[in-house]
Amino acid sequence: MRVREMSRLAHADVQSNGWVGKLLCDRLLSQENMNNNSNEGHQANMPEFIGFTGFRSRPILGGFCEGISRRDPSPVILVNGTYYVWYSRNTVAAHGYPATIWYATSPDGKEWTERHQALARGTQGDFDEHGVFTPSILQADGRYYLSYTAVPEPFYQGLGGQPHITKTAIGMAVAGSPDGPWKRCESNPVLTPGENPPEFDSLRVDDSCFVVRGKRYYMYYKGRQQGRTPAQTRMGLAIAESPEGPYHKHAANPVLDSGHEVCVWPHGPGIGALLSNAGPQGNSLQYSRDGIRFQKVADTEPPKAPGPYREDGFADGAGPGVSWGIAMQAHASWPYLIRFNCNLKAGS
């Protein structure tokens, strides 16, 4: 299929029907250009991103709330007529490190009710003692897998004479219902930083997001090398035969050299990705036919930390794309959650 040319260069604030958002979509690259720029034509027959013009959003859960940080939502899932989303929540600081994981539900994806804590911090001496945050969700074989980023005690951010920066790890908990109770997996942590300082993820593994392909579980995650800044974050891939792992890092890592947050989904026969404003390909929409080699489709400014509604239900096979989700609105003191709408549906 041929990707539609769009010469919009639109950058307009939109306010209608309670929605407040920003549209930014420079252009969709033609299929001819993509094939010329791709290796061995691996992007051929890419399904269309039909009519994509950007994003619009509005607050949920009351929007800004003094003294409460709600941030970094998971993808949204639908179970028995109820939508679920998980997120980092704390009342200590705007950042997520001291957070625990909470969840909210909705009958229609628009009006949301905060429920309660889904996952607490780990016990003394555990890899997740200090904080659990940046959750993601995976449905498989009638069970629910809640992945999360964690930091231990003592926790250091490398500030004010602290000896070093504490490394992160990715953990997982499992439940028979999206309402819990959640039990930590015996295989925790399921992903840890690289052992050698030159590796792209030797300091941070964070922000996991899942796609099921060929009966295997693709965990995309962001990694950061020791001595690098958040603006130098890159994206990696680890693959497992079972939801609980073991996850093996792909030899082609990092699969993307940009983006500070991980947002991927099955798009037609391939995988779509939104990259935030970090790295040389920041603020872009990407596509990969094989899940490893990505190509830019459009320049765009995505919402922060987007968690798309996974209409595919984590099924193995072609995906329908994305039309809405939950994201984060950054704030100087206390970030909050928003719902975003977009048109990122997969063409035929």
CATH architecture: 5 Propeller
Rounded radius of gyration (Å): 19 Å
Largest sheet: 10 strands, antiparallel
CATH-assigned fold name: Tachylectin-2, Chain A
CA-CA gap between termini = 8 Å
Report the order of strands and helices: EEHEEEEEEEEEEEEEEEEEEEEE
Low-confidence stretches: 1-45
Question: Would you report the number of β strands?
Answer: 23
Q: Give the CA-based shape.
A: globular
Please write the CATH class name.
Answer: Mainly Beta
CATH superfamily: Glycosyl hydrolase domain, family 43
User: What integer is the average pLDDT?
Assistant: 87
Description:
The chain is mostly beta strands and 348 residues long. It has one domain: Tachylectin-2, Chain A (5 Propeller). It is built from 1 helix and 23 strands. It has one helix at residues 31-37, and strands at 10-16, 19-28, 55-59, 69-71, 77-79, 82-90, 100-106, 113-119, 131-140, 143-151, 169-175, 183-184, 204-213, 216-224, 234-240, 248-249, 263-268, 270-275, 284-288, 295-300, 304-308, 319-329, 336-345. The strands form 4 sheets. Strands 1, 2, 3, 17, 18, 19, 20, 21, 22 and 23 form a 10-stranded antiparallel beta sheet that branches. Strands 4, 5, 6, 7 and 8 form a 5-stranded antiparallel beta sheet that branches. The longest helix is centred in the first third of the chain and has 7 residues, at 31-37. Residues 1-45 have low confidence and may be disordered.
